TrEMBL record:
Belongs to the succinate dehydrogenase/fumarate reductase iron-sulfur protein family. Residues 149-177 form the 4Fe-4S ferredoxin-type domain. Keywords: 2Fe-2S, 3Fe-4S, 4Fe-4S, Iron, Iron-sulfur, Metal-binding, Oxidoreductase, Tricarboxylic acid cycle. Transmembrane segments: none annotated. Its cofactor is [2Fe-2S] cluster; [4Fe-4S] cluster; [3Fe-4S] cluster. It comes from Lentibacillus salinarum. This is succinate dehydrogenase. InterPro entries: 2Fe-2S_ferredoxin-like_sf, 4Fe4S_Fe-S-bd, 4Fe4S_Fe_S_CS, Beta-grasp_dom_sf, Helical_ferredxn, SDH/FRD_Iron-Sulfur, Succ_DH/fum_Rdtase_Fe-S, Succ_DH/fum_Rdtase_N. NCBIfam families: dhsB, PRK08640.1.
Length: 256
């Protein structure tokens, strides 16, 4: 059951790691309860009072945070077996003891700090940007219709937090799959009037090793996405585009 306001302490079990080559270990903490605490508040208390549950002084927990309003994505971690944002996760909503771990899909730098560089490498592979250099010379581009603009706005909410990769069963050390977050990113850039000029290049890049064929449509990503991004429809839209592009390439015709 979730914690209640009459509990005076919070029990946390945190998985720690001294450096990328060290073995992980668990350390327990008991801290005073305050109403409306989030996980970041608990970690900040431990940083200011680095004493574990046994009463021994310890090295302060290392983690990353920035915006504290679910925008930057860098405080992603696994909390009670669910990948999520520590800033938006309230202590009152969690069952105790609260178990906190780094997202193991990514290399661990130290404690709860991870390296998400692979996500940005994936975005580079599929050219997930709008090539605006020089386009101002040819005048203003066409306007998006309202339906497409609303769809693009929902896709643009992705802040590369990485929780969808942690939840996806196809993202592991035996697979090169880039992850479900790439589908809405490709769809978003292809929907842009200027970005559409490179849509075939993006689809082609996403059809290569580690691309869309690695998705088994398990839907885990949809369940954990903190922004409710329409990943399912993006998977369908990108797969449809890829199929049509394959037909055009095979038959050498635009009639498909």
């Amino acid at each position: 059951m979730p914690t209640t306001t009459d509990e005076k302490t919070i029990h946390l079990i945190i998985e720690r790691q001294k450096d990328p080559d060290s073995d992980p270990y668990k350390e327990e903490f008991s801290i005073p309860y305050r109403p409306n605490m989030n996980v970041i508040s608990a970690l900040m208390y431990i940083r200011e009072n680095p004493v574990n549950k046994a009463g021994d002084e310890t090295i302060p927990i290392q983690w990353e945070m920035s915006c504290l309003e679910e925008v930057c994505g860098i405080c992603s971690m696994v909390i009670n077996d669910v990948p999520q944002q520590a800033c938006a996760t309230l202590i009152d909503d969690l069952e105790q003891p609260i178990r906190i771990q780094p997202m193991r899909t990514f290399p661990v730098v130290r404690d709860l700090i991870i390296d998400r560089e692979s996500m940005f490498d994936s975005l580079k592979q599929v050219k997930a940007w709008i090539p605006i250099d020089g386009t101002y010379d040819i005048g203003p581009g066409p306007r998006m219709n309202e339906k497409k603009r609303l769809m693009a706005y929902e896709l643009s909410k992705c802040f590369t937090c990485g929780v969808c990769l942690e939840a996806c069963p196809n993202v592991n050390d035996k697979s090169e799959f880039m992850g479900p977050f790439v589908f809405p990113q490709v769809r978003l850039k292809n929907a842009h009037p200027t970005g559409d000029m490179n849509s075939e290049d993006r689809i082609e890049a996403f059809m290569e090793d580690g691309g869309l064929q690695g998705c088994s449509n398990s839907q885990n990503c949809v369940q954990v996405c903190p922004k409710g991004i329409p990943i399912t429809t993006s998977i369908g839209a990108v797969n449809r585009k890829a199929t049509l592009q394959s037909f055009r390439s095979f038959f050498g015709s635009d009639r498909y």
